[in-house]
Task: inverse folding
């Protein structure tokens, strides 16, 4: 079951993210994230360990199904690139406002914007059963993945 729309699906892939908890540094009198931080993205369904998408029992893992699920994971990856750039530019006067800003920024991108893209992708591709839209979205993702500075995917802000 897709938690976003309640549609019965053969597989479900989401992503989880992790930002190491390292002390901030001071740049020009403002707190900034440590430049050695690495934002990690992993496929996940929230119930199984990261790296294991959930597949309905008895479902064949066809190339089409796996390609559809790969897109959901790739959304997390391209959004993470934007989030990483925004986090590195973030400057705040104190730790409390830095923590608040990080939470707001990550929620906005990883939850709000990702949900909009995922929902539209699933609606257009009918959860991977419409090969025309599956191909269109696959090309949009290929373009986005090839540009490390991309800020949009198929007209949607990342």
Result:
């Amino acid at each position: 079951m897709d938690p976003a729309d309640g549609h019965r699906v053969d597989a479900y892939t989401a992503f989880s993210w992790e930002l190491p908890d390292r002390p901030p540094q001071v740049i020009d009198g403002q707190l900034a994230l440590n430049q050695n931080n690495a934002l990690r993205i992993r496929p996940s369904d929230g119930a199984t360990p990261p790296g294991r998408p959930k597949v309905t029992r008895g479902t064949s893992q066809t190339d089409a199904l796996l390609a559809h699920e790969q897109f959901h994971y790739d959304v997390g990856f391209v959004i993470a690139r934007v989030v990483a750039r925004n986090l590195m530019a973030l400057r705040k006067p104190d730790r409390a406002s830095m923590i608040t800003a990080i939470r707001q920024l990550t929620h906005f991108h990883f939850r709000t914007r990702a949900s909009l893209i995922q929902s539209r992708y699933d609606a257009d591709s009918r959860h991977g059963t419409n090969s025309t839209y599956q191909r269109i979205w696959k090309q949009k993702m290929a373009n986005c993945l090839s540009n490390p500075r991309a800020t949009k995917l198929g007209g949607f802000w990342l």
DSSP finds three helices and eight strands in the chain. The first strand starts at residue 11 and ends at 12. Residues 11-157 form one domain. The two ends are 25 Å apart (CA to CA).
